[in-house]
Design brief:
alpha+beta; two-stranded antiparallel sheet; 7 helices; globular; disordered C terminus
Length: 367
């Protein structure tokens, strides 16, 4: 590429520029379904310890031809939340999911079973099936009660403790400017985000290690952004959190062009193989927080064979305002809290695999 400007920029700028040079967004507002509405299930049968829910994996929320992994898991969380709605344990606490096969746009069933009901937690198993009853996703969920309980001995860390985790994003959303999203994200007209340039620039700083210097730890890359549902009638609910936990730039996309593993990433698909979600707190309902905006921070450390396997750790945070709105107030950062942490293992595959599996009526495995 010789004189390509990407070769003279830091990794943060090159990632932004590569994203900006992708195909422009074309409005599909008349055909797109808001996330909250796309995460709806209907109960078709139930007994004391089992239930079946029907749903539709909506074509608005796909990457290429395959429904986004977090959105698909959200259907399971929605069904289980409905199942638990009349119990003492209404809140999802932890979810572990294995994606066995690629899902497809269209009808699906979520089959929920009780594994154990305890004093503090209820354990459920839930499978999402499509086609001739083929299981596409299997999961284990823990439900409980996220209501804060005042104890004589504090059992949590929060500001002003120096040990408490603070919001890792550096800029207030009022100063954020929306960035383009990948053209293969069909939902890009329903979503807006603004990446944190300072975090991206740190990746470039980490790569500037002096020759002969011993590296201890380190490695990988980090990323952050404010992310927002654009439809005013949309809303963030517990079943939305897996979707947001799956909204980040994967490690291969964050690498500079000097790293061979970065080559061709614009034509890659990063399917999720496993995902865990730990819900730290309930979604805020007060006017002091944005109702359709969250802060996202991710870090990825390992990229290995086979199939460009890599990890991602994502934090989902509250936001004080919508993107480009609100005002900077003293202490705003200490008022934000982490809603959930999401970990996953993903692969790096050619995008044609995505389109092939998304257009096939046959049950196919990811590999």
């Amino acid at each position: 590429m010789g004189n390509s400007p990407l070769l003279t920029l830091g990794v943060g700028d090159s990632v932004w520029l590569r994203a900006s040079l992708e195909r422009p967004s074309f409005s599909r507002q008349n055909y797109m379904v808001p996330l909250a509405r796309a995460l709806c299930v209907s109960e078709i049968s139930r007994c004391s310890e089992n239930a079946i829910y029907e749903t539709e994996l909506n074509g608005s929320w796909v990457i290429g031809s395959i429904p986004q992994g977090g959105y698909t898991l959200g259907q399971v969380v929605e069904a289980c939340t409905r199942f638990q709605s009349e119990t003492m344990h209404k809140d999802p606490i932890h979810v572990t999911a294995h994606f066995l096969r690629a899902t497809n746009v269209g009808p699906a069933e979520v089959r929920v079973s009780v594994q154990k009901i305890g004093k503090h937690f209820t354990n459920l198993s839930a499978d999402l099936a499509q086609g001739q009853g083929h299981t596409k996703l299997t999961s284990h969920l823990i439900f409980g009660d996220l209501t804060p309980v005042p104890d004589e001995v504090p059992r949590s860390l929060a500001a002003p403790s120096p040990y408490a985790r603070r919001l890792p994003l550096l800029n207030h959303p009022s100063a954020a400017v929306p960035d383009r999203m990948r053209h293969v994200w069909r939902f890009r007209s329903l979503l807006s985000w603004s990446m944190d340039r300072t975090i991206l620039a740190r990746n470039a700083m980490h790569s500037q290690t002096q020759a002969g210097t011993e590296i201890i730890g380190g490695g990988g890359a980090e990323w952050g952004a404010w992310c927002e549902l654009t439809r005013t009638e949309d809303e963030i609910k517990p079943s939305s959190i897996p979707f947001f936990g799956d909204m980040f730039l994967n490690l291969p996309s964050l690498l500079p062009e000097s790293e061979p593993a970065s080559h061709g990433t614009l034509d890659c698909w990063f399917p999720t193989v496993t995902m865990t979600v730990e819900f730290k707190a309930r979604i805020p309902s007060s006017q002091g927080y944005a109702s359709r905006t969250v802060g996202l921070y991710s870090e990825s450390r390992f990229l290995t064979d086979p199939h460009g396997r890599h990890n991602a750790h994502v934090e989902v945070w509250t936001s004080p305002s919508a993107i480009g709105q609100g005002k900077l107030e003293a202490g705003w950062r200490d008022k934000q809290y982490c809603i959930a942490v999401v970990d996953q293992m993903a692969l790096t595959l050619p995008m044609y695999v995505n389109h092939r599996q998304g257009s096939s009526d046959k049950v196919v495995t990811k590999l």
